[in-house]
Amino acid sequence: MHSLADSKAQGNRLYFMELSRRECIELLEKIRWGGEPQCPYCGSRRASPMDKGLRHHCNDCFTSYSVTVGTIFHKTHVDLQKWFRTIELLAQQPQNITVRALANTIEVSKDTAASMLNRIKTLKREDPNFLKEICLALEKRNNKDN
Ligand SMILES: [Zn+2]
């Protein structure tokens, strides 16, 4: 069994590029909302940008929210960049990723890596299209960069 680092050395293509937090959020917003913020609490589309557009304030129910509310990425204390990288790695080599390898690759604890793998597995079962759209968006972006 070889590690992720080995497969990279062997030239297997890993779809990884450094996305900024903003790019990750914009990518998710495009997938979930078509780019137009929608309040997860009341459904309103009337929003004002907060934190330079990384969060939104609902002009109808006055709560603030980000695009991760209601997704597996919410309240995990793991950067979206690390989530997206994990999703890419899983898409590329689902068999090869152990908890330990993932923890080393994205620099999180083994507990966190295990919990991320579980959440992604659940998402794959419950909302495969959402996961697929994330993969497609990442792949498209990666191809554009090369
Ligand atoms: Zn609202």
Distinct ligands, ions and cofactors found in the model: zinc ion
Secondary-structure element pattern, one letter each: HHEEEHHHH
User: Mind summarizing the main beta sheet?
Assistant: 3 strands, antiparallel
Low-confidence stretches: 1-16
The general outline is globular
Average pLDDT confidence is: 86
Alpha carbon gyration radius: 16 Å
Domain tally: 1
How would you write the strand order of the largest sheet? 1-2-3
Helicity level: 40-55%
Which band does the percent of strand residues land in?
5-15%
Quote the distance from N terminus to C terminus.
Answer: 29 Å
Total strand count, please?
3
- Total helix count? 6
Structural class: mainly alpha
What's the gist of this structure?
The chain is mainly alpha-helical and 146 residues long. The chain has helices spanning 4-9, 21-33, 80-92, 99-106, 110-126, 128-145; strands at residues 47-50, 55-58, 64-65.
Report on the structure:
This protein has six helices and three strands; from the N terminus they run ααβββαααα. It is globular and about 45 Å long. It is 51% helix and 7% strand. It has one domain (4-33, 72-145). The protein starts with a helix and ends with a helix. The protein is mainly α and 146 residues long. It has helices spanning 4-9, 21-33, 80-92, 99-106, 110-126, 128-145; strands at residues 47-50, 55-58, 64-65. The structure holds zinc ion. The site of zinc ion has 8 residues, from loops.
Helix and strand arrangement:
Blueprint: H1 4-9, H2 21-33, E1 47-50, E2 55-58, E3 64-65, H3 80-92, H4 99-106, H5 110-126, H6 128-145
Antiparallel strand pairs: 1-2, 2-3
Helix pairs in contact: 2-6, 3-6, 4-5, 5-6
The structure holds zinc ion.
